[in-house]
Amino acid sequence: MSANTIGERYQKRTDATAVPVGKASFTAALRSEWTKLWSLRSTYWSLLALVVLTVGLSAIISAATVTTTPIVAPEDPTVVSLAGLDTGLLVMIVLGAMFISTEYGTSSIRTSLVAVPRRLTFLGAKALVMAVVSLVAGTLTSFAAFFTGQMILSTEQLNVQLSDPNVLRAVVGGGLILAGSAMFGFALGALLRSTAAGISVAVGALVVLPQLTRIIPGNWGEIIQKYFTSNAGQQIVRVVPFDGQLGPWTGYIVFTLWWIVLLAVAAILMKRRDA
Amino acid sequence: MIEANGLTKRYGSKLAVDDLSFTVRPGTVTGFLGPNGAGKSTTMRMILGLDRPSSGSALVNGKPFTTSQSPLHEVGALLDAKNVHGGRSAYNHLLSLAQSNGIPKQRVSEVLEMVGIEAVAGKRIGGFSLGMFQRLGIAAAMLGDPEVLIFDEPVNGLDPEGILWIRNFMKSLAAEGRTVFVSSHLMSEMALTADHLIVVGLGRLLADVSMSEFIQRNSTQRVRVRSPHGDELARLAAGRGAEITKLGGYLELQGISSDQVGDLAAEHRLTIHELFEERASLESAFMEMTRDSVEYEAAA
User: Given this chain, do its domains B2-210 and B222-279 carry the same CATH topology?
Assistant: First the structure.
């Protein structure tokens, strides 16, 4: 402690208790983010809410279809059995937004960025963990909703089979829409650095504004309506396509580009801004 | 080793940090002292690459911290102990940090034990007391067995036992040859821990001195003596060039050491009942130094 130790270099511990020097690689960041996601209760509650709401509402709408008199055969039975997706995507927005916005809300972002000072590594690892988890959870939920709904519809022989043309694509698409919604929330959470703002803007962009685009008049109005976020994205869950809308995959790619652009902007800002 | 070269941070028209240059060396505890709002935390955030300097740069072990391959091995930082997600358990919080740097799981248990919170490792951080937060923050800082440690006001909110623990901990880290950079707004705290002082006020560097030099430069030494032969002693001391003030039953002597007073009394066979040296408080020296750079001052 006295002045004579000044200038002595810190000697690494070399005995058996030495802490191995690890690297802050992308894989390491992935592992860290994985732990972070699964060590919060809110993750489990969100996923439970996702399944219960999506499957539950799909079941209720399917049940309503077979119990109204007279029974009207639905135009697209697959869509009926996936009716809960609209609500499920709200849960996904919350899950995605909160995964990054709570880092800012709790200031734990500073602790995180001292451990992983390369911000794109940090953001990329976090985004990838969210993408994988939301895709797996979304796909499972979509299939669960489909089978539940179809089982109910089958009581009046209104059901379709997974092997029918385009049905599998629509059910897989349901999972993709849920995952995309989580990423929308994530991108906006990263961009706005606030849970409340991230969720509000994402809900506005995916639920409210897409409806409003229908009232824009003229040619431009039509184009905006067609390409706007979930208007484009939801085509992938339709077996019977809507007239004048984008094709299922084109629509989904457009939907994906929306959040990728938002995430790219968030990444650029994150590199520049003070944490 | 930490080097700041002309570090400057501007928020709009306000200069939070103004052209700061200093070096923090290994093997010592370097105190970063300044009143609230002096720019200490901002400087630390810039060193850690969390805030971008408006101009100037900071190097950790010779390179910008953000380029580090093993950040937690290079620097352990405790900025604000509350920079954690309260919903996570202490163990998982530390585990996620360890994993981000490829540090083995076993090290998490080691640091938990090191700071003495292994009993609450599985509990959610949100329910921790401030002292436990602080210990958790230190555990996180120690994960990578780092060469450089940066602590921002680490004793804030700690009980006396915790304060003592942190002081000794920081000293032992420096004794191991590590670089320890610790901020405080309390001179008295620094006097007990730091070997070197970097004093700032309103973002500017006010002093960069060793603690012993700071003490020598800023403390006037007084000797107090109580004796039944007060008057005679006073006359003798005055003869040696001392300045004398009478304070109740005591004489206060300036410009003479207690050794000299004792010798003088013995020489003239004068009884002394009490004799001691008094140092002007470092706190007042510090306040004098930073008087013009206190951001908010209470009306006198």
Answer: no
Sorted by where each begins, the domain ranges of chain B are 2-210, 222-279
Contact at CB, B69 and A24, closer than 8 angstroms:
yes
pLDDT range class, residue A1, cuts 50, 70, 90: very low
Contact A115 B101 (CB under 8 A): yes
The 3-state DSSP class for residue B193 equals: helix
Is B79's CB within 8 Å of A113's CB? no
Reply yes or no on whether the pLDDT at A164 is more than 90.
Answer: yes
| Per-window interface: A 122-181 vs B, CB < 8 A | none
Residue A16 has pLDDT above 60, yes or no: no
- Which numeric CATH code is attached to B222-279? 3.30.70
Q: Are B43 and B60 in contact (CB under 8 A)?
A: no
Q: Are B44 and B152 in contact (CB under 8 A)?
A: yes
Distance from CA of A42 to the nearest CA of B (A): 9
pLDDT of residue B144: 96
Nearest to A28 among B75, B89, B100 (CB): B100
* Cβ pairs A/B, distance under 8 A: 165
Q: How far is A125 from chain B (nearest CA, A)?
A: 10
DSSP-derived secondary structure letter, B124: B
**Which tens digit of pLDDT belongs to each residue from B77-134?**
999 999 999 999 999 999 999 999 999 999 999 999 999 999 999 999 999 998 899 9
Answer yes or no: do B195 and A1 touch at CB < 8 A.
Answer: yes
Closest listed residue to residue A82, CA positions, set A195, A189, A200, A167 = A167
The domain B2-210 is classified under which CATH number: 3.30.457.10, 3.40.50.1820, 3.40.50.2300, 3.40.50.300? 3.40.50.300
- Short-list B34, B1, B13, CA closest to B293: B34
CB contact under 8 A, B88 and A21: no
Look at residue A5 in the predicted model and tell me its pLDDT. Answer: 35
